[in-house]
Structure prediction request, 336 residues.
Amino acid sequence: MPFTRRHLLGLEDVSSEELTYLLDTALSFKEISEREIKKVPTLRGKTVIGLFYEPSTRTRTSFEIAAKRMSADFVSLSAATSSVTKGETLLDTARNLAAMRPDAIILRHASSGASHFLAAHLDCPIINAGDGAHEHPTQALLDLLTIRERKGRLAGLTVAIIGDILHSRVARSNIFALRTLGASLRLVGPPTLLAPELRTWGEVTTDLSEGVHDADVIMMLRLQLERQGKNFFPTVDEYSRYFCLTERAVSCAKPDVIIMHPGPINRGIEIASDVADGPYSVIMDQVTNGIAVRMAVLYLLIDRAKAEPEVEAETQSQSAAGGMDAPAPRLRRNVG
Prediction:
């Protein structure tokens, strides 16, 4: 099943077939970043706007590199240097940007649902680059691609997600996608950072050793102090004492476990440096795969309008040649 959605706002309702198609497409783009000349003409003449209302290093840079490697023009705006500082609303800002006819808008915003709001009002594709504590779909997709590369599959794996799950949009997108693709989840953290509904999504424990026992994948989360309006634990030192991933904790997992973290890392709080930089860590692989995933997402959303007539034309041709028995049409790849 091809990915034919207009926007990428989250992964909660994305099917296993669509997720697999996204990952396969990302894998096909990955080799472009290994070439001596890392650029293809796939999105030449297209314009992508990155609208970031929150600080971002990896996501913003990754989207920009992804767009440029496909020859698209990338315009990056931050709230601190835009008309937002003069009191302009998100919708007015976005409408003005949309009037300049971009081919996609990437939005990061502190409010959950901000990308859904824009998608309801604008015609061009909207890509959610993280909205509040809701979802961060491209981060989850690059996590899935990294796991699949290392483990060869996603179904049947035990994935331990550890830390500030309550405030983590990365965790929510990963939970939705991993469940859809057949992985088993263990959710680990202080009881105050484990929402009651999590118990319907996987095993829940407040014991780090129990959570990582025989795990295939350990996914650490950043402690999001900026999203916490009240104290969810006594001190950061106490949080670290119980939930920082150390080599001793890793020894409880499977011998071929992989360690993940979406970044930025709070070393010594969520994860010890010797674990973050150790042999089980795939954190840098996650960053590398982020470009391939975002190339795939931009390609599938922006190229959709161009691909549909190809499908239609191909369908007409097949219909003329073989009627109802002709093979089903496939989207043509044009990655350069």
